[in-house]
Write a structure and sequence with these properties.
2 domains, 32% strand, Immunoglobulin-like, alpha+beta, five-stranded antiparallel beta sheet
Length: 241
């Protein structure tokens, strides 16, 4: 079976044969242009991918550097905080040693060379400081018997807190707040006696001053003598005679 072409088509192709190379040239150029555009897009995508990778690595490096800086600052802050705590504790220890030395020196000075005062038993010092928890206070009272020949002195101790509650003046028994009963307020003193305790202020009470009252048989011939000291309240006081 033979193939037959339309004579008109054959005649048209013979007249316009030059179009065939032109069509082939256009097809080749279109193919080449398409491949060139594809290569350009691939190159652009590769550049963008490399740029994004570089930016990602830079961000990771900055993140690592920031974390290192944060850890360094945290470590430095912890060291500084620990150093401050140690310094504060050292200052507190030195203050305590100084107070103990002053108290010990006062004891022996007044035993050896009694200070003239009504009676031989004196209120030597009173110390007040913040206690073991917020809102708690510690106190320390030192009493000295100046008569070295006396075997012992009997005394009755009272410590009163004066202040305001609901805008009214009130008086509170500090020793009772610290857990002292009537028996423990009666003292037997030989040379000296330290009275210490810890207490919490009553709710709604604003302290203004403390009053230390001491009644003893330290007067001439064993007569009764009453002593009183008034101390302004500031939550952290030290009184030395």
């Amino acid at each position: 079976m033979k193939l037959r072409f339309n004579p008109n088509v054959v005649q048209w192709l013979r007249k316009h044969w030059w179009l065939l190379p032109l069509v082939l040239l256009v097809a080749v150029l279109a193919w080449g242009l398409g491949n060139w555009l594809l290569l350009q897009q691939l190159a652009l995508h590769s550049q963008q991918s490399q740029l994004q990778s570089q930016q990602l690595r830079q961000m990771e490096d900055e993140k690592v550097a920031a974390l290192r800086q944060r850890d360094f600052l945290k470590t430095e802050l912890a060291v500084e905080k620990n150093t401050n705590l140690l310094l504060q504790q050292d200052i507190k220890d030195q203050q305590q040693k100084l107070f103990d030395l002053k108290k010990e020196l006062a004891v022996y000075q007044k035993i050896v060379a009694p200070v003239p005062e009504s009676g031989t038993l004196i209120i030597d010092s009173f110390r007040l400081q913040h206690g073991s928890a917020v809102g708690r206070y510690q106190f320390s009272l030192l009493l000295i018997e100046q008569n070295k020949q006396k075997k012992q002195t009997r005394a009755q101790l009272e410590i009163r807190l004066k202040g305001l509650r609901k805008k009214k003046t009130v008086e509170v028994d500090l020793l009772k707040l610290a857990g002292f009963n009537n028996k423990s307020k009666r003292l037997l003193i030989k040379n000296f006696r330290a009275v210490e305790g810890e207490f919490v202020l009553p709710a709604g009470f604003t302290a203004e001053k403390l009053e230390v009252r001491l009644t003893s048989n330290s007067g001439q011939g064993g007569t009764t003598v009453q002593l009183k000291k008034v101390i302004s309240w500031d939550g952290h006081s030290e009184i030395l005679d």
